[in-house]
Amino acid sequence: MASLGHVKPQTLHFEEALPLRSGATLANYDIVYETYGTLNAARSNAILVCHALNASHHVAGTHEGVEKSEGWWDNLIGPGKPLDTDKFFVIGINNPGSCFGSTGPMHVNPATGKVYGADFPVVTVHDWVDAQARVLDRLGIGQLAGVLGGSLGGMQALDWSLRYPERLRHCIAIATAPSLSAQNIAFNEVARRAIITDPDFHGGHFYAHGVVPKRGLRVARMIGHITYLSDDVMEQKFGRQMRATELGYSTQDIEFQIESYLRYQGDKFSEYFDANTYLLITRALDYFDPATGHGGDLSRTFASARCKYLVASFTTDWRFSPARSREIVKALLDNKLDVSYAEIDAPHGHDAFLLDDPRYHGVLKAYFERMAKECAA
After folding, report:
1. For the chain, what is the mean pLDDT?
2. Cβ atoms of residues 292 and 145 within 8 Å
3. Which tens digits make up the pLDDT trace of 181-219?
4. Active-site positions?
5. Is the dihedral of CA 63, 68, 71, 74 positive or negative?
């Protein structure tokens, strides 16, 4: 399988205000995106990839002059890969509120001339889908072959099928849920409190103080990372391995290898991710619940859906468990929609959707091959 090689991000500017679910608006904003492959003459082979919490528009390929810059789904997308860019035109879009190029808390608010910081408006999955639709309008793509996403990206894919049912033919939702459980909301809240209570946070306006709330970001990432891995994987990789041959009898130093790993992940995350963005995106996760407008009835929620679906889950994913995916599948079947479901026995936990599991990639490859035949027909 060939590599996509170097790819370049592109930027679109929008002056027309984007109405947000909160009642606020976002005007004069930029959206950064990347594309891979070629749009066919019928403009029928486009697939939108929606990113999850700490990812971006850079889905595949590499950035010239940047080491270790492979896109976050590079193992899945490219020539000859399960999502084959010789057959599909793939689009990755960075959502508003992110910290990877699209307008977010780190940018200047044109209305005030000051950095948004904590004043950046709260955004939801619905708002992101509306922003993505505007990008596709600019690209001249009226209907997508499909929308693909994992985790929070899967929520966006589901929302696409509900908000714009006529604009996609397939929804591929992986390791996701129709809403967060109370436990998931609780994890998000603990992570947010770690950031908000960091003395360097300054109410979200830390940019003006020339500091970054790295301590809070480190803890937030450590909490999140624990939930992305299964107990089996953590035991296999680390067990009770010690850093030294003897106990140090310290309550503050690193004693176990798992502690070292979590601190490494936290340190790395705090160097590139924005604290306000973390608050915004985790809150968007909390808010997502399309059944709210239908009396909590998920089957009624999907009554307006028209596309075909592939839903996939992983047995050891306890953050977005297979039971949550089966809720989606039941709602789709209640509406007699065309749905394929794969529950993959993988040991990796929630992170499995990012990894190169042959059974998982086999399911996606077969599904995309059927989609490619539709596009060619």
Report:
1. 95
2. no
3. 999 999 999 999 999 999 999 999 999 999 999 999 999
4. 151, 317, 350
5. positive
Position 334 scores a pLDDT of 98
Q: Would you call 276 exposed, middle or buried from its count of C-beta atoms within 10 A (0-12, 13-18, 19+)?
A: buried
Q: Provide the strand spans (E) within 138-203.
A: 146-150, 170-174
Q: What is the mean pLDDT of residues 26-35?
A: 97
192 annotated to bind ligand: no
Q: What pLDDT, on a 0 to 100 scale, did the predictor assign at position 373?
A: 93
**Residues 160 and 46: beta-carbon distance below 8 Å:** no
In single-letter form, the type of residue at position 254 comes to I
In sequence order, the 6+-apart residues with CB closer than 8 A to the CB of 243 are 254, 255, 256, 257, 259, 260
Q: What are the C-alpha distances in Å from 181 to residues 167, 185, 279, 283?
A: 29, 6, 18, 13
**Residue 351 assigned ligand-binding role:** yes
Amino acid in position 70: E
Average of pLDDT values for 260-287?
Answer: 96
Helix crossing, 214-228 with 257-272: angle to 10°? Answer: 120
pLDDT for 315 = 97
Query: Distance between CA 377 and CA 368 in Å, rounded?
Result: 14
DSSP classification of residue 172: E
For 340, list phi and psi in degrees, rounded to 5: -110, 140
Confidence of residue 1 (pLDDT cuts 50, 70, 90): low
Residues 6+ apart with CB under 8 A from 27: 15, 16, 17, 18, 110, 111
Tell if the pTM clears 0.85, that is, is over it. Answer: yes
pLDDT at 375: 87
Query: d(Cα 369, Cα 41) in Å, to the nearest integer?
Result: 19
**For 359-373, how does the pLDDT look when each residue is reduced to its tens digit (9 = 90+)?**
999 999 999 999 999
Task: Tell me the C-alpha distance between 85 and 90, whole Å.
Answer: 7
Query: Amino acid identity of 138?
Result: R
